[in-house]
Design a protein that fits this description.
heterodimer; A: two-stranded antiparallel ribbon; B: Arc Repressor Mutant, subunit A; seven-stranded mixed beta sheet; binds flavin-adenine dinucleotide; binds FE2/S2 (inorganic) cluster
Chain lengths: 101, 465
């Protein structure tokens, strides 16, 4: 659904999106990286396990929560990609129960 | 970061940047905190790193941010990016999260310039993957150069929707349709406000040019659309957008729908501090009450920019400067006469920027039936997945205000802490016969205003020894 416009001025970093290695321009948010690499949804909800995707991209809706470097419930829209970062889609509360108060 | 500053500014958008430059010129200790990684706020997002070509597409208003960011970088204000403020008390103690660690700092004066958020307006299917806010689409473009690859439907109302369409058009994004939900009756309501708006005709002209360009590019705009509904495929992801236009049902196949229903002040911090708020009927939102300098009901806590009431980016810059001057005066750094003298031109600009607003507010007012949806199965609280029907039932069971509904249903208690549902809940409660929408119908705010992990909270003791 999304593509990233080419920008040759920027350094690339390698990140792992659901175990797959991809190359991404630095300065890209994790949410933008996930959407432009084919993910339509990035998590499922705690209550009904329904699929969700980033909605506001500005840190207020908490619908973009993903597992970033092993930590669940991270806002993908407020996190930038970094070299060797591991990003995974999150199911419900994610692996670390009770991370978020 | 020090434990105390004379002035702490929360937000590095146009209002915060302008305030910081003004205040730090006088040699006070001033810190600017922002949860984003870079300066610019919403309008000037990524202003320091954006490729030249993209800046061009984003337009001249966007490019104005370059000078402001530069002046800020040259100022003596200390800037802390990636710093989320999660609490503020009436005695000006600020709780923040920086580098994964929490910290408490204090200030003599606090200026909250935390800007606006997009007004969340629930409709059937708005939680589906593939449906997002238009501002989100714009952020993807501004900061990451990410745009729709297989077309997009834009729906809603307001100048930002038009701006996004125009920006997308420049980079060849296919706009499958523009569905404008502004009812035709709004046009009549707005007419009496047109003469004043003409004083700011450059804004009107810009809007008309955008519309003309889109039309020339073959973009279909439908005005007076209602009954917007997003429907999923077998994967639970957006497939079709349904709507009503001129009395007939229509549908479009699309994997992406971006909606916009105007913007509202982001008031979670002023609420946490206990500032007085009011319901602004014309802007259809709550905002902190304040005087012409930005003073809230709490001494030493100021507001400016769109967080104080929606007046746009240029106005944010001017009100930011005015609040900066007021902070200097309150700190005893400049005299009242000096403050007043320096504020004359700023105030003129603020007034000039206001000309267009009553017209825009009337023209783009969101219809009542959208604010208080009757579609029972529509999710209102995205976090706790509470529907409009459940809220109406709660009201029928004599839980007649938003806070009662919240405690009964958990609506507004999820991770976003009611940011996405507070508005709709207040409207639905009022529509169902409960408390009318007023300053009392917002969820009561309490810190932390953002979820913190136990680890993050625990780090407080280490940082503040
Ligand atoms: C998504 C979006 C896109 C927009 N795009 C445009 C546009 O293209 N053109 C236009 O004219 N207007 C735009 N606007 C309107 C916008 O409100 C501008 O008028 C302008 O950016 C307002 O300036 P400001 O300084 O008041 O706030 P903002 O520019 O919004 O800046 C507020 C800053 O405060 C920070 N902040 C908020 N809460 C906290 C917290 N708790 N802790 C730390 N930091 C915090 C935010 O990260 C942000 O950087 C947009 C609004 C939104 C919501
Ligand atoms: S998309 Fe809304 S918080 Fe990240």
């Amino acid at each position: 659904m999304f593509k990233q416009l080419p920008n040759s001025d920027v350094e690339m970093v390698d990140v792992f999106l659901n175990q797959q290695k991809i190359s991404v321009p630095m300065g890209t948010s994790v949410a933008a990286m996930a959407l432009s690499n084919g993910l339509r949804s990035t998590r499922t909800t705690v209550i009904s396990n329904s699929r969700r995707a980033p909605f506001c991209m500005m840190g207020v809706c908490y619908d973009c929560l993903m597992i970033i470097d092993g930590k669940a419930n991270q806002r993908a829209c407020m996190t930038h990609v970094a070299q060797d970062m591991h990003v995974e889609s999150q199911q419900r509360v994610g692996p670390i129960l009770g991370e978020v108060l | 970061m020090k434990n105390h500053y004379q002035l702490v500014i929360v937000g590095a958008g146009p209002a915060g940047l302008a305030a910081a430059v003004t205040a730090s010129e006088q040699g006070i200790s001033c810190a600017v905190l922002d949860e984003q990684a870079a300066v610019g706020g919403q309008i000037y997002r990524a202003i320091e790193s954006v490729p030249e070509q993209r800046a061009k597409v984003l337009g001249t208003e966007y490019q104005r941010g370059t000078a402001l960011a530069k002046a800020f970088r040259e100022s003596k204000a200390e800037y802390f990016p990636n710093t989320k403020v999660w609490s503020l008390t009436a005695d000006k103690q600020i709780g923040l999260l920086h580098d994964g660690k929490s910290k408490l700092i204090t200030a003599d004066q606090v200026l909250l310039v935390s800007g606006a958020i997009e007004r969340p307006v629930p409709f059937p299917g708005w939680t589906l993957p593939g449906v997002m806010q238009a501002g989100a689409g714009q952020i993807l473009f501004k900061s990451s150069g990410v745009v729709p690859s297989e077309g997009v439907v834009l729906a809603g109302s307001g100048p930002l929707l038009l701006l996004l369409a125009w920006q997308y058009m420049q980079v060849g994004v296919e706009i499958k349709a523009m569905l404008d939900v502004t009812p035709l009756s709004n046009h009549l309501q707005a007419m009496p406000k047109l003469p004043r708006a003409l004083l700011a005709h450059h804004y009107l002209t810009k809007g008309l040019v955008y519309q003309r360009d889109l039309k020339r590019a073959g973009v279909v705009t439908k005005i007076g659309v209602s009954d917007l509904r997003a429907e999923a495929d077998e994967n639970d992801e957006l497939q079709t957008v349904h709507y009503r236009h001129l009395g007939r049902e229509h549908s479009i196949e699309t994997g992406l729908l971006m909606t916009h229903f105007g913007i509202i002040p982001h008031i979670w911090l002023t609420q946490a501090a206990g500032c007085k708020h009011q319901w602004d009927k014309s802007q259809q939102c709550w905002r902190p009450s304040h005087d012409k300098w930005g003073n809230t009901s709490l001494q030493g806590i100021l507001v400016a920019g769109d967080g104080a009431g929606i007046n746009g980016a240029r106005s944010a810059e001017h009100t930011g400067r005015l609040a900066g001057l007021q902070a200097l005066y309150a700190l005893g750094v400049i005299s009242e006469a000096e403050r007043d003298k320096q504020s004359i031109t700023e105030r003129k600009w603020v007034k000039a920027e206001r000309h267009i607003r009553p017209f825009l507010e009337a023209y783009f007012a969101i219809p009542q039936e959208m604010l208080a949806t009757h579609a029972k199965d529509t999710i209102i609280c995205r976090c706790e997945e509470i529907t409009a029907g459940e809220i109406r039932t709660a009201v029928e069971q004599s839980h007649g205000d938003s806070n009662q509904v919240k405690y009964l249903s958990r609506c507004g208690m999820g991770a976003c802490q009611g940011r996405q549902c507070a508005n709709a809940v207040a409207h639905i409660v009022a529509d169902a016969g409960g408390l009318a929408v007023s300053e009392k119908s917002h969820f009561r705010g309490r810190p932390p205003v953002a979820p913190l992990s136990l680890q993050e909270l625990a780090s407080l003791s280490e940082e503040n020894v």
